[in-house]
Design a protein that fits this description.
Largest sheet: 5 strands, parallel
Shape: globular
Length: 174
């Protein structure tokens, strides 16, 4: 079976005490399993002054500062492994109208691929990515040990996993 790995938002703005060990596990996983994947895509959240994150939520973290901040925001060890970034300014980053998503057609034209998903935040962009994959009929697995929330709320992971289980069943966890 052909495989794709989506690493969602493993970026400096989401690295904290809770996520640092998971970020290091993701890097280790990629180093040891890169040969098992045809493609490894790393999404990069980029906020901007006109985004709904700023306008509706007053969320100003990750504000874009120039045309390319890849090396500044992607967790450095991952940046050295893969140069395929999927930049997004919305929770859903695989949408065809995304101005940053030059890989959309390629991803959704691939039949017979299994997709593994990991990264941050399980309660935000990872969850949205899984709904998007599901809605587009793409088989996926969530790499549970490589997925977490950067939230300071201890319960956020638990709540997000309950939403995942209710929505997709435990069969998508690996």
């Amino acid at each position: 079976m052909k495989k794709i790995l989506f690493i969602v938002d493993c970026q400096k703005i989401f690295i904290n005490v809770r996520t640092q060990p998971v970020a290091d596990k993701i890097v280790d996983f990629v180093k040891h399993n890169l040969q098992n994947y045809k493609y490894v895509f790393i999404s990069q959240f980029r906020n901007n002054a006109d985004s709904n994150f700023v306008k509706m939520l007053n969320y100003t973290s990750g504000l874009a500062q120039g045309p390319s901040r890849g090396k500044d925001t992607i967790y450095e060890p991952l940046f050295l492994i893969s140069k395929k970034f999927l930049r997004h300014e919305k929770f859903q980053w695989l949408l065809p109208e995304s101005t940053y998503n030059k890989y959309h057609k390629m991803v959704f034209d691939m039949t017979g691929y299994d997709v593994d998903v990991c990264g941050f935040d399980i309660d935000g962009c990872v969850l949205a990515t899984c709904f998007e994959l599901f809605d587009n009929g793409i088989q996926f697995s969530i790499l549970k040990s490589l997925t977490t929330s950067s939230s300071n709320d201890e319960n956020m992971n638990q709540y997000a996993w309950k939403i995942m289980e209710r929505s997709f069943g435990k069969k998508v966890w690996r």
